[in-house]
Write a structure and sequence with these properties.
four-stranded parallel sheet; Sulfotransferase_dom; two-stranded antiparallel sheet; transferase; alpha/beta; 16 helices; globular
């Protein structure tokens, strides 16, 4: 069993401005070095941190006004957009390119070390493209693999128990020395993960999420994160997503690369929407993949506990209105945006048999 740790949690208030308010609420922020940090998605006791300054443009404008497609090519960046305050150009400078893939700055200089990272047969890895349900999946995996329950998980800093390989904290050296069984997360593409993983070592759980919901969540995340300070429009951010201009590279390549390896003995490919559609089957798949022995009654208890996690996620006051639900894109995309997104999606996924539920 992994060690449970009591911890204080950073709480983000509900995003009332997404429901029509003209002014965003003040929000508590993580320390400066908590770049791209995944915080648990349920309400926790807040830390006493300085409140975030109100952004220069009310987010209501971002989601209401700037989502409208008003002429011009949807996927061609307008010169005027590149000259606005807190420009996408500033956003661009925060990334670097490695082997044709844009990566966050904290990955710089450590990719070779990641490739040679030593694995153990008992390792359990969770790999996702950002905003694909990582926080919820890690709790489900911990519950199934460790025999925990939702109340235990609610008292622990689960992000500390499941570190992200490429993040600055805790760092590769510390992760390497963790006690087995190690539970490790990453957002890196398949080809950048440790070479030993490609040879069948360790167990890898990959989760994919439908790209329309994902891009809404990813945009909201970038707008709220102090270290990124993205203030472009959702329309412009969506173009960047479709043109592979965001951190961790192309979503299309990311998911298709893992989809091609779904039959590998050490890979389990899951879809975010299945947690809401059929948690029973998903938990059964996880238990079988992880070698967890359980009878029918024990499996039913695990499914009930996992559904409780989903319920807590949906009811949490700390969640924004757009996080977690399936089909949130329908509240944001215009008809024109949706048509253009679908066209690009078909072009990029035309050779793949991977499909998604865009609403339930």
């Amino acid at each position: 069993m992994l060690r449970l740790v009591r911890a204080h949690y950073i709480t983000y208030p509900p995003c009332d401005w997404l429901r029509g308010s003209t002014r965003p609420p003040a929000a508590r922020h993580p320390p400066q070095d908590a770049v791209f940090s995944n915080h648990s998605h349920r309400h926790r006791r807040p830390l006493s941190l300085k409140q975030r300054p109100v952004p220069p443009h009310p987010p209501s404008r971002v989601f209401a006004v700037s989502c409208a497609c008003t002429g011009g090519s949807f996927w061609t960046m307008a010169e005027s957009e590149a000259d606005t305050p807190s420009t996408p150009i500033e956003f661009e400078s925060k990334y670097f390119e490695f082997d044709g893939v844009r990566l966050p700055p904290f990955c710089r200089g450590k990719m070779e070390e990641i490739a040679s990272f030593s694995l153990r047969s008992s390792d359990i890895w969770i790999v996702t493209y950002p905003k694909s349900g990582t926080s919820l999946l890690q709790e489900v995996v911990y519950l199934v693999s460790q025999g925990a329950d939702p109340d235990e998980i609610g008292l622990m800093n689960i992000d500390e128990q499941l570190p992200v390989l490429e993040y600055p904290q805790p760092g590769l050296d510390i992760i390497q020395e963790l006690t087995s069984p190690r539970l490790i997360k990453s957002h890196l593409p398949y080809r950048f993960l440790p070479t030993a993983m490609h040879n069948g070592e360790a167990k890898v759980i990959y989760m994919a999420r439908n790209p329309k919901d994902l891009v809404v969540s990813y945009y909201q995340f970038h707008c709220s994160l102090r270290t990124m300070r993205y203030r472009g429009s959702f329309q412009e951010f969506c173009r960047r997503f479709m043109n592979d201009k965001l951190g961790y590279g192309s979503w299309f390549e990311h998911v298709q690369e893992f989809w091609e390896h779904r039959m590998d003995s050490n890979v389990l490919f899951l879809k975010y929407e299945d947690m809401y559609k059929d948690m029973g089957t998903l938990v059964e798949q996880l238990a079988r993949f992880l070698g967890v022995s359980c009878d029918k009654s024990q499996l039913e208890v695990m499914v009930e506990n996992c559904n409780q996690l989903i319920e807590q996620c949906c009811k949490s006051e700390a969640l924004s209105v757009y996080r977690g639900r399936v089909g949130v894109w329908k509240d944001v995309f215009t008809v024109s945006m949706n048509e253009k997104f679908d066209t690009m999606y078909r072009q990029k996924m035309d050779k793949s048999d991977l499909t998604f539920d865009f609403c339930l």
